[in-house]
Amino acid sequence: MKRGLRILAVGHNHQPDFIRKVAIAYLQRDLVYAGMIPRDRAVADAVRRRQPFAEGDGPASQALRTLAVKLKAERWKE
Asked: First vs last Cα of the chain: how many Å apart?
């Protein structure tokens, strides 16, 4: 099986185990849970204003920055 891809769950209905099983069955790739971006009203507000939500300090912005730092620190191989 090939090296794991990173998955990200958004909102409260994430099912990383289900997504992982589907990837193994159909893609022959394992997945590694990378994190979750929580639901945040600031995201919908930013979309309506057509502005990036990541510039704010809400829960989704903070989680996105944390995930970015975590992924940047990883060693990537093909």
From this structure: 13
For residue range 9-52, list pLDDT tens digits in order: 555 555 667 777 888 899 888 877 778 888 889 989 999 999 99
Q: Which pLDDT score, from 0 to 100, does residue 61 have?
A: 93
CA 13/CA 10 separation, integer angstroms: 8
What number of residues does the chain have? 78
Tokens of 63: 């989680």
Closest CA to 37 of 12, 70, 18, 16: 12
Q: Which of 12, 10, 32 is nearest to 20 (CA)?
A: 32
Q: Which two tokens stand for residue 29?
A: 């790739």
Quote the pTM value: 0.65
